[in-house]
Design goal:
By secondary structure, the protein is of the alpha+beta class. Helices cover about 15% and strands about 35% of the residues. The protein has a six-stranded antiparallel β-sheet.
Amino acid sequence: MSKQIDLVSLGGLKPGACGVVNAFGAAPDQVTADMIDRLREIGFAEGLKVELLHQSLFGKDPIAVRIGTMTVALRRKEANLIKVQLA
């Protein structure tokens, strides 16, 4: 019997929450290969641990995310393309 993995979007996490990047994507009309390539160039990759550090008070954009020792600012729209398994 296989165990189902529950994935959430990085943009849906609360500050202080951690997860492991599992996949990229959203509805086909919302994602482009360029967006995924940009996230990979920044440093996001499957298997990496990420932590949501901070979100803006108004509108909750941008958010600060830690990838290893690096801190990155993302728009929530971009963060929602990153699917994580909670750690």
